[in-house]
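Review form for a predicted model. The reviewer records the input and the model, then writes brief findings.
Reviewer: anonymous (R2)
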Amino acid sequence: MTKEQFQQEIRLGIPDTLPEMPPYDTEINHAPKRKDILTPDEKRLALRNALRYFPQHLHAALAPEFMDELRAYGRIYMYRYRPQYEMKARPLDDYPHRSRQAAAIMLMIQNNLDPRVAQHPHELIIYGGNGAIFQNWAQYRLVMKYLSEMTDEQTLVMYSGHPLGLFPSHKNAPRVVVTNGMVIPNYSKPDDWERGNALGVTQYGQMTAGSYMYIGPQGIVHGTTITVLNAARRVASRTAGRLPLFVTAGLGGMSGAQPKAANIAGVLSVTAEINPKAALKRYEQGWVDEVLYDLDEVVERLKAAGAAGPTGATMATGATETTETQTAQLAQRPQRPQKTQSAQKPQLPQRPHSIAYVGNVVDLWERLADEDIPVDLGSDQTSLHNPWAGGYYPVGLTLEESKRMMADDPELFKEKVQASLRRQVAAINRLADRGMYFFDYGNAFLLEASRAGADVAPTGAKGGASFRYPSYVQDIMGPMFFDYGFGPFRWVCTSCDPADLETTDRLAAEVLEQMMQEAPAEIRGQLADNLHWIREAGRNHLVVGSQARILYADAEGRTRIALAFNEAIRRGELKAPVVLGRDHHDVSGTDSPFRETSNIYDGSQFCADMAVQNVIGDAFRGATWVSLHNGGGVGWGEVINGGFGMVIDGSADSDRHIREMLLWDVNNGIARRSWARNAGSLMAIKREMERTPGLVVTLPNLVDDELLKGY
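Model under review:
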């Protein structure tokens, strides 16, 4: 398809005649069938809702087709309207547009749906099993048409994937305002989502899926790396002379970052994944070193390596020391790994190495406990925010058996999942009793395990802890990073030129080098790790899809890096605008008591003022688009989160937006955390007030513990 044909297809939107039905691609990883939750009357309503996107003369032809989809898949995806052009991020000027900001948003949308990036691209599911960008292909077509037509004095309003329309605004207003899953609180249970999504009236936008800011597994890899790195520092005395062994699960979406992060952090890892397509996808992308199908072979390899192999990484023993982590070099992968096994099994290399085990995670954990393999680090990144619809697969069933049961007998499937969780936790507890450090990675693993009756009750945990094991935010990400304002800053080069990405990496490193000379001791270690990260980013081959980068940075770092980018665009060193953004999983972006705000102990971890205020503040300080979501990471009804995108183009307006919006976007959360008496945030917000005129934050008066003992 030529560029002109592509642009014509975008401008067409929803065609007035029936397009040909594309073939069902069996090579693509498809979403599981959703459970049959609608009554006959509700199914007719779902059909009526779907048909309203199309002219009346097409209704008779589309009605039986859409009803067949609803019965077969539990949703109406409108497969007939899936475009036949290649779905990928294109250079900015390839998109038909009247607004370059709108063109950048089209690039971001197509990157989300790139088959290399999206988990179930034909069902518009980006990651997490149900994290959607749109509910159906009609919505995609209409949104792209509106974006191609809009000016910088209009705003596109999005209701859970549905484009409500273009409304007059002004050039400093957001071009797009997105909400996903915003329901009345009393109607925010999992079955409420199932029903509303089947009706075509709401969707689960996850975090960056429904906000057009997903950049593939790279989006979480830096956070996962610093989590594993600092977790490994906690067990350094136990692992002297060998590599730490990290065991976890999940390779489908965001979880696909785990093996790469483990390699960069300098550990040996085994990641269980039930879906062979997901494991092979990560292997072919270079995000996991090896795929094994036989659990006996996994165990034999670990035993032969002395449980975790000879040491090959340089691991710091102090959390704030400057660290040179071992980086894994990406090997060429000319073909898929074979299931057949040779008589002579290869040995594990004498360096960080990642294994994907294609099988059930419960089998893996139980076998490791039975064989007394010394696991040092443990976690889980299965999509347990979505436990009954493909986020977690119970032991004893094949992948296909599970898919059938979750649709045909959802109650029995739920029983199987909960029984599996009890077994998984029992095995984890055995290994933890032998010294393993286990952390919840914010996927609702401990939450759902507790609801299943697993033994995760706290045993002498610190005040405010809900479970036996900490969230990674409680022990690592919160006190070391979020409290000081460090979070997952990201950017995308709209030229789609790798040379531009290399330039941004260099500019970001130069900024961090300057900051290292001035930084207080409390954050020097974080800056050192982040500087090492960005220097090694190119060699670690992180790009999947768009030319994007993730870098943990604080408010000062984000602002100085973004201003350096804007200056580079202005002088022509960068060829096209840059999109700035972040994961919603950030200092200010998310209120989630079992993840982002789990290290807040004043009782406000269940309040959502911060995330809502963040989106409002970003919208009038220069964001190009903003989004607010119910659900994300931990699950529907468990979290409120928001995000933004900002297109910078070398202009003075972009300089102003950078300074005003990024300051607010980070310091809103630091101020909230300081009011909760978090020590790092108190230090950070006082430092920010000293350097920022006009910033005045209410600080807490600390109460003597001895005073309260008499009450």
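Findings: The chain has 22 helices and 17 strands.
Further findings: Residues 410-433 form the longest helix (24 residues).
Recommendation: see findings above.
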